[in-house]
User: What shape does this take?
Amino acid sequence: MGLPARLGVKIVQPNGHGLSIAGRIVDDLGAEVVRFKTNPKGMTSVSMEPKPQRTYYAEVMYIYQPQRVPLPKADTEGLLLSADAISDTTRLALTIRSANGAVIDSAYILIQQHGRVVDEQKIIPKNGVARLSLPMMSWLPGLAQITLYDALARPQTERLVFVPQFMAPVQVVMSVNKTRYQPRELANLNVNLTDNRLPALAALSASVTDAGQVPDDTAEATLPAHLLLTGELRGRIENPNQYVLKHAAQTRRALDDLLLTQGWRRVRGTPETERLGGVSLRGRIVNAKHQHLPGAQLIVAPNAGQSSIKSAGAYQQGRIRLAGMALADTIRLLTQIADRQLKNMSAKEAFLVQEGPGKEWESGKLPVAPNGSTWRAQLEAARIRQEAIADFYRDKWVKVLKEVTVRAQKREDRPADIQQRSLHNTADAVLVFNEKSPSSINLYEMLQGRLAGVRVTRTSAPPGATQPPGYQVSIRGSTSFNMGTQPLFLLDGVPIQDPDGTALMQFNPSDIE
Assistant: This one.
């Protein structure tokens, strides 16, 4: 509120295609703020400055019928991020403003591509405004995700921009030996790669899909358009290839409007009750008849090796919420349900029905049942929505199966092709651990004294050392893959580097079979 902002607009017809139409934005007093006209794909963007105490609406006239849509309410405080990758395709211009010109110590910008951090900046605004200009020449082509954090590392807003391809891509020419094949007939593919007209060496993988089984916008997109753009956006995208192939200023502006609408993501707006940090567990406690058990107690503790135990009592309707659990990575939680007197209840007496994020807790009052005409109107509205935005409802033909049991015979021998490229031969000894096995504090202790010729000894840390004491593992009479007496550890086929005898302490012994 009180800051100039760029607002993305998209108007979609009932058939799912964008609509080119004129409209305007007005406030609650009826005053016109700005006019707009969408492009042939139904998108555009306008600049406006929300005023205090005002609410805003978008108005269009469609088939002689006025449509009035309320706009999201503007925030009274916070940070605003503006990104410009259109004016200069080699540099990204960022502008950060704070509401009401408030003085803030610092803010942080994090830029990622495909989960990889490409740039991070600390910003110290002056008079509530900061501007940055970042080079994009070294970034990968495709989408870049820009996230703005406040001084306490809380995300404030996020934006996607498109980085053009500055270098000519490797040319890939693929051909097949026949134009038509019989079912299950062998197809020979010839792939030719050239980089600047010279042969290129590459490691390739292929995925073959029946084009008739995927939505038309996905099948229409070329591989570069899908990998660089459409694969990370929501909704149906009309003529996606033009955004990647054409580099005119008008196309870049249309692409930015696409990212403002179908690439926008909300990182703020979490309810205050959920801002407890860590991992949250929520749901309701019910008995075998699915009746609520208010007053029941839920006790949660991480698996072996952790000492943090948390508990919470169920509210009315059996609702329970347990937040603030400091957990990292994948971990198994042990839960126990008790009654009001903290007497343990069995799984047959009570169990937890877990709920995902975003589930609102209903009030205690029962809603009034709608009449038949209301139900029919809601069903018809749902049908129109599903036909208008098909890819949001791509699973409407999916059928939910009952419990399915898959049985297969375990292969004792490894396939020949696996043996050829494996680092080891058939096992000389196998140890199997299950819930009946004695517990061990780490993987070194699990090996100690259980394998002939393998010696596991505890080592003490040298005086003044900061690292904890470790273990020394050696195999009698053999040289390891590492050209020494220390063995090579493979966890699910992945080598574990263990230079100081402490690497295996990072893994939970109860996860090893």
